[in-house]
Amino acid sequence: MNSQNDSKVSPLSTSISRRGALCALATLTLGFIPATAVAASGVRVLKNGRIEVTLSKNPALRQVGGVVRVDNVNGRSIALIRTAKGKNGFAALDLRCTHEGTLVQQDGTSWICPNHGAKFALAGDLEIGPAITPLRKLKVQATSKVVTIS
Question: What is the mean pLDDT of the chain?
Fold first, then answer.
């Protein structure tokens, strides 16, 4: 071993590079980006056709921006989104594109229609056509334990 090289410390190893700072900043902000929708657990279809989602079975809904998907219940696919803290902080969307009824897919903070490229915000608002209306919002009632979608 060369004893001269062992005692020297590179200036890069003692300072933070601009790239390192940007990577750290990106890592910190990732907590604010909604997670990709996961399949919901603890889903029950009630006799009246409403869908009940148990919150304790869906850890994604603990944080604002969390999304779970309920597929093929009553012939539709639905996204349940945590929009704010508290029991009123939920929204449910019918995931059929309002242009031609194709199921939209989540892409970061948006829903994208794979057929013609319509783009919707995470909360369902229309951002880019050819659709001309937002995704259909469903009625939601929540307690501290369950969210019921009509």
Answer: 82
